[in-house]
Specification:
Radius of gyration: 17 Å
Order of helices and strands: EEEHEHEHEHEEHHHEHHHH
Number of strands: 9
Shape: globular
CATH superfamily: Spore Coat Polysaccharide Biosynthesis Protein SpsA, Chain A
Strand content: 5-15%
Largest sheet: 7 strands, mixed
Number of helices: 11
Number of domains: 1
Strand order of the largest sheet: 5-4-1-6-8-7-9
Structural class: alpha/beta
CATH topology: Spore Coat Polysaccharide Biosynthesis Protein SpsA, Chain A
Distance between the termini: 39 Å
Amino acid sequence: MSVLVVVQARTGSTRLPGKVLLPLAGKPLLERMLERLRAVRSPFELVVATTTDAGDDPVAELAARTGTRVHRGHPTDLLDRHVQAARAVAADVVVKIPSDCPLIAPEVVEQVLGAWHARRAPEQLDFLSNLHPATWPDGNDVEVVTRDALETAWREARKPYEREHTTPFVWDRPERFRVGNVTWETRLDYARSHRFTIDYPEDYALIAAVYDALCTPERPVFPLADILDLVAARPELLELNARYRGQSWFQKHWAELETASMLGMDPGVTTE
């Protein structure tokens, strides 16, 4: 079973343009994130899926420079971009990881992939993530979906958010697809209290501070435990982006999602 990890990346973010190229400890953010994914032990192919826009040429060039496969596709139809990337390498399984997760923990990815591989036919899932509900710090998003389920979504999804966010057509239909979730054993909801994703300048300030404190040439990839220890010792770091905690695209479509109650988020919190 061939597994393809797709990192979706572009420079055209409306809230923080060019965020994937911002420097973190001397290297672009996207390069740092690819370092972290390469530390995952489970075997997979890795691809950066960017757009065909000329403004994303630097993203494609960065991926190529780091020896990472590149796929260029539709600017806003992320479902199509993932399916086309999977077709290009004949992948059986697609792992969706957005490029706004520069502190994603290799051990979290490993745990989700391990849970996926532990399920064998006839109990094999169509979709598995750690987001329904999320329990790890925001920015550790891992979604695993079969190529067959993704192809079905590609053929049938009509709502704009289903195509923009790639997987909701699958996970929001548990009566049709076999859907699972991986919960952190801490039983604590770090997704509400720790925001390690990047959408705003305040997010970048926190993430850059973490890299400045923990990243060294000898140890460029540091574990989640070290990040949590750092922000516990320096709580002012978590306050940098505190006003954005708990934000997600989910809130915009709360009334449309059949499984909204499983997301573990406050529908009253809205994104910009």
